[in-house]
Amino acid sequence: MTTVLGALSDTLRARVPELAVGLDAWTRRMMRWHFDPKTGSRFWLTRRDKLGFDPIRDIDTFASLDRFGLFDKAELRAAKARDLYPRGYRDRPFRVFETGGTTGAPCRIVNVTRLAYDVEIYRTVLEARGVAGGDVLAMTPGGPHAYGHFVEGLADSWRGAVHAIDFDPRWVKAALRSGGAADAYTGHLIDQTLALLAAERPTLLFTTSRLLVELAMRLPRPLHTYGIRAVCTGGTSCTAAEAEFLHEEHLPGVQWIDTYGNTLVGHALQADAVPGAPVVPGGTGHSYHLPPPFAVLKVVDPADPWREVEVGQRGRIRATTLLEDLFLPNLLERDSAVRTGPHPWFPWDGVAAVRPFQESADAEEAVEGVY
Which of 269, 216, 210 is nearest to 236 (CA)? Predict the structure, then answer.
């Protein structure tokens, strides 16, 4: 498996040819797409004349996207989904996804092709790890949330069944913001999951790190005895102590594949620790790498979001998403992380030891809940 994973970036580029396009060339392509009246969305076309520069003529490298300044998420929250729909896709069906509302009111985005990219990339990772295929238990949000749709698309790619639970992550966040507790709703999610584990013997379990910890505390026996070969997590962060507890006590014989990301930036893929490499304090032994050119993560100085910190230093995450479905330049994320260098599997920078970032006492509080 190590040999296969060592060539993973090459395999990804073969399966998704767009990943082989250079970042500067892709940036120019996305500027032509989003700011041409024939293909762009109303959201960006109505903003073009207010930018003070011509994005098609003046943005010729990824670095020059700094001219857009920091993106204000409030603009996305206020936008109608129809205004985000690119005219170049006017004859194609689309879906509306919403974020989880970790830092306030959710944002809406549209999906035409992005989910298909995510499925192909993640399936390639599962195949490299030897765990693709089989039926899936989705302990994930559904409804307007991209995570559940992604899991369904992944299982569809190999004709697997998806056993989903009822899961509204905003219920827990609303309870926490009002001073309540998450225990009752978390118990409701765990009860559904335990019943499906016993009845269906799925091969893959998709959930969040926080719920995996809760599930492990209630499992009468290890996960592998239910037929689970791999657990795939995303969403909430996990502490080093929690990760060690899960690996040692509840996941013998089961691969644990984690991602970092969200609805707006996609999935940063887990790279396992390299023997002999320095240990990142507070990390779980993994780094996370988001495949360019679809999106890029920068770890920046919280006091100067245009200055990238050195490898090994902690900073705030600044993300840029470059897709036909969605263009978001220079979005300051809710998270901080340690910047890591390239990995043998993914030859581009990554992040590690991710945790919520609190800008100040007056800033919006990030409420992760269970997602």
Answer: 210
Count CB neighbours of 104 within 10 A.
15
Q: Quick check: bond before 93 cis, omega within 30? A: no
pLDDT-derived band at 170 (thresholds 50, 70, 90) equals confident
CB 251, CB 223: distance < 8 Å: yes
Provide the whole-model pTM.
0.93
- Write down the H helix ranges in the chain: 2-6, 8-15, 23-35, 42-45, 55-58, 73-78, 81-84, 114-128, 146-157, 169-177, 183-200, 209-218, 240-249
Residue-wise pLDDT tens digits, 356-371: 887 654 445 555 556 5
Q: Is 133 left (phi over 0), alpha (psi -120 to 50) or beta?
A: left
pLDDT of residue 285: 85
Return the CA Rg of the chain. 20
Spatial separation of the C-alpha atoms in residues 110 and 112, rounded to whole Å: 7
Predicted confidence (pLDDT) per residue in 256-300, tens digit: 999 999 999 999 999 998 888 888 888 888 999 999 999 999 999
> 27-65 burial, b if ≥16 CB within 10 A, otherwise e?
bbebbebbbeeebbbebbbebbeeeeeebbeebeebebb
Distance CA 229, CA 261 (A): 23
Pair type for strands 108-111 and 95-98: antiparallel
Which amino acid makes up residue 60? D
Farthest-apart Cα atoms in the chain, separation = 62
